[in-house]
Every structure is written in C-alpha cells, then in structure tokens.
Amino acid sequence: MTLYLFDDLAMTRKEIMTKEKILLKFGGSLITKKNSEIPKINIANLERIGELLNNKKYDLIVVHGAGSFGHPIAEKFNLIDGLDESPEQKKSIKEIRNQMKKLNQILCEIIESKGIKTRSIIPSESMKTRGAKHISQFPKKMFDKCMNEGKTPVTFGDATDDELQGINILSGDVIMMELARIYKPAFSIFIMDYPGVMDGELNSTNSHLIPIINSNIIAEFKQKERNNKTTDVTGGLIGKLECALEISQYSQCWITNLDSLNLALLGKPKGSKVVQ
Ligand SMILES: Nc1ncnc2c1ncn2[C@@H]1O[C@H](COP(=O)(O)OP(=O)(O)OP(=O)(O)O)[C@@H](O)[C@H]1O
Ligand SMILES: [Mg+2]
C-alpha cells in the first residue's frame, strides 16, 4: 500500500518535472481599457481568459502588462526617466505599485476560479533593475518553488527599484525575456489586442498580418518610427519585438490575440512568429 502510494507520488513529481513550459503574456492592451486615463479593466477579455485557460499539456508561467493601470501614471510622473525626488513622484510610485497589485489580483482570481492555483510574484518587492532592459535581481527561487508546488507563477510589468536611476518601469515584455532565457519554454506567446503584427495602417482593410517577424522587419518598423518623428506610431510595439527576437533564441515565440489562445495551449499557435 505504502509502496504504491510512493510510486504514485514519484510519478506525479516526475510528470511535473518533465512537463514542458509555456510562457504567456497577457498584454495591457488586452486586459485593460488601454486608452483610459484612469485604471479600467477589460472585463470581457478577462472573462474570456478564464474560459480559455484550461491548460493540461504544459506548465504555465503567466506575465501580464499594465495598460491603463500603469502607463498613464508612468508617463505623467516620468517614472521611465528615474527618480526626480519630488513628493508627487514619490506618491505616484506607491500608487502605480498598488494599482498593479490590484490588476494582478483580479487576473489571479479569474485564473484561480478555473481551478488553477496561482502565486503572485510582485516585481516591486522581488526584482531590481539596471535600466529598462536589464533585470539585475530576479527571484528565480520563488518561481522554482512555486512551480515545484504545482502552482502557476503570475508576474507583471511594474515600477522597480533601479540601480542606475532609482526607479524604473520594468515592462512585462522584458520579464518575458528573462523567463525565456532561464526556463527555455516550448512556447513564449504575447497575447495582445491584435491577431499579430500588422502591416500598413492598423484597422484599415489593407492591413494584413505579417506571418514571420525577423530582424529585417524590425529594422523596417524602426525606420518607419524615425520617419514619423512627431507621432509614436508603434506605441510599445518595437520594444516588444526586440524582446521577442531575443526570446526566439530560446523558445518558439509568437505574437497573437485571444482568439488563438486555445490553439497556443495545444502547442499549435497562430499569429506572427518571431524568428532569428
Ligand atoms: N503594426 C502593428 N501591429 C500590431 N499592433 C500594433 C502595430 N503598430 C502599433 N501597434 C500597437 O501595439 C499595441 C501593442 O503594444 P502595447 O505595448 O500597447 O500593448 P501591450 O504590450 O499589450 O500592453 P502593455 O504594455 O500594457 O502590456 C497594440 O495595441 C497596437 O495598438
Ligand atoms: Mg507594451
């Protein structure tokens, strides 16, 4: 009896340890009303995430973005440029961190309601950065422990203490890069509000999905941005593509939307594939 039990436990542990991983980022453009000046969730998309996230094949690691819970404050108080020592900025750091924790809690509750146990890993309390693209302190042990316990880690873009400039906005895209480098998941999937990276004007009927993104295409986007100095035509897209290109060294990397989440969870993603 005891032996059987022991065998079962050993089997379960082995399965957990050998299961491949899938790294998902739910963008702020998806889970919030991203153009709102005040924090607003996109409840319809959050509920759909809850419906679709019934994964069995892979161990999940979840990252999420900030959208209206982060970007407006970060911009207003110049958090991207570091500490300016003003009391207003100090207050804004507290506020953005609280708002991000709130958004994380909402997403975790939705995931938990589907029977998936989660553990929040809060970057402002567990990570440090050296500029926007470099994480100097990363809580790998927390991620390992959480996964060994059969839980899904859920982390997010946040305002982190920064070794160079005091404060930094650490994007969920950069966290994806670090997680892909460490865990080499089978798939790393950015899920946003478009079905992938589009060419031409967004929302126009002439706009088509670009099936393969490589360094040449990213260079073209950068050139387009340079030619449109007055407007930020791509928003956060170029930063995301640069992170995705790096990730593609370690993992299949895709950019897609919620319509393809179920396929991604079956190991058959659609959208734009990012390759070296
Ligand atoms: N060619 C393009 N193809 C697809 N999206 C584009 C393109 N150009 C600009 N975008 C914009 O990029 C956005 C995705 O990047 P953005 O950083 O805004 O979202 P996110 O990463 O989901 O949000 P967050 O940074 O809050 O996590 C899309 O919502 C879209 O408006
Ligand atoms: Mg972004």
Automatic annotation (TrEMBL):
It holds the Pfam family AA_kinase. Its EC number is 2.7.4.26. Coiled coil: none annotated. GO terms for biological process: terpenoid biosynthetic process. Residues 21-255 form the Aspartate/glutamate/uridylate kinase domain. The keyword Transferase applies. It is an enzyme of class 2 (transferase). The record marks K34 as: Transition state stabilizer. Substrate binds at A66, H71, G172. It catalyses: isopentenyl phosphate + ATP = isopentenyl diphosphate + ADP. Keywords: ATP-binding, Isoprene biosynthesis, Kinase, Nucleotide-binding, Transferase. One of its GO terms (cellular component) is cytosol. GO terms for molecular function: ATP binding; isopentenyl phosphate kinase activity; kinase activity. ATP binds at K25, F26, G27, G28, S29, G67, D193, G236, K240. Catalyzes the formation of isopentenyl diphosphate (IPP), the building block of all isoprenoids. Belongs to the isopentenyl phosphate kinase family. Homodimer. This is Isopentenyl phosphate kinase.
